[in-house]
Design a protein that fits this description.
Layout: H1 3-22, E1 37-42, H2 47-58, E2 64-67, E3 79-85, H3 93-101, H4 103-106, E4 110-117, H5 128-141, E5 148-152, E6 154-155, H6 162-169, E7 177-178, H7 182-195
Parallel strand pairs: 1-2, 1-3, 3-4, 4-5
Antiparallel strand pairs: 6-7
Helix pairs in contact: 2-7
The chain binds flavin mononucleotide.
């Protein structure tokens, strides 16, 4: 191969690699897509990502699902569902910052809110709703009265930041668990769709 051809092939290969890199992120391609719906989540280890995807599945897979760390532009969406995992009683700083700085854009578009928490492996109770919604997500996002749901989440040691994992492991009785249920998330997706009909 001539030197010039070699360089050309190399550059083309690099270009293809760069294009491939751009599409590396988890992308979901629903059979039926309605570009009016988006789900935005804040997560550390993925529980709220799965909750978001499963809520979308309950909505027959119509929503685009975004991690807030991608800082997505949601201006084109008419309907948005927002949720996040809980640490020390609140969602991630990234989600809180996004909601604060995009409050105006989000205003009037929010159709549902959700939170994912451990709740010490105990069942979800009504007293969590004012804590995670009225005094937190609703306030930050400016959402109106929309369907809201708290889900039990999970702990996966291998996905956790090492320092946090060590701290968590030192807590008596703390172990891995998985209480997030696809059926409950899907049911919430259906409830949201019903609420806008
Ligand atoms: C450092 C840390 C703090 C947590 N704080 C709370 C809390 O205040 N209340 C609660 O109910 N669950 C708490 N949890 C449990 C998480 O909300 C639950 O495991 C959730 O599914 C984690 O979401 P993620 O997969 O996005 O990390 C905490 C978990 C960790 C690791």
């Amino acid at each position: 191969m001539k030197k010039r051809d070699f360089l050309k092939t190399g550059l083309l290969g690099l270009g293809a690699l760069l294009i491939t890199r751009k599409t590396d992120a988890l992308e979901y391609y629903p059979t039926v897509k309605n570009s009016e719906w988006a789900i935005l989540y804040g997560t550390w280890c993925g529980s709220s990502r799965d909750a978001g995807v499963w809520i979308s599945e309950g909505m027959d897979g119509i929503a685009d699902v975004f991690d807030v760390r991608e800082n997505p532009d949601l201006t084109k969406y008419k309907n948005i569902v927002i949720g996040g995992s809980i640490r020390s009683g609140v969602t991630s700083k990234e989600l809180q910052d996004y909601l604060t700085s995009h409050k105006e854009m989000l205003g009037g578009k929010i159709r549902g809110l959700f939170a994912v928490c451990g709740n010490m492996k105990r069942p979800i109770t009504q007293n969590l709703y004012p804590t995670y919604f009225d005094n937190h997500l609703t306030k930050l996002s400016g959402a109106g009265k929309v369907p809201s749901r708290v889900f039990l989440g999970r702990i996966t040691w291998g996905l956790m930041e090492p320092a946090v994992r060590d701290q968590m492991k030192s807590m008596p009785g703390m172990d891995e668990y998985d209480n997030l249920k696809r059926s409950e998330c899907m049911e919430f997706g259906k409830e949201i769709m019903k609420s806008v009909k």
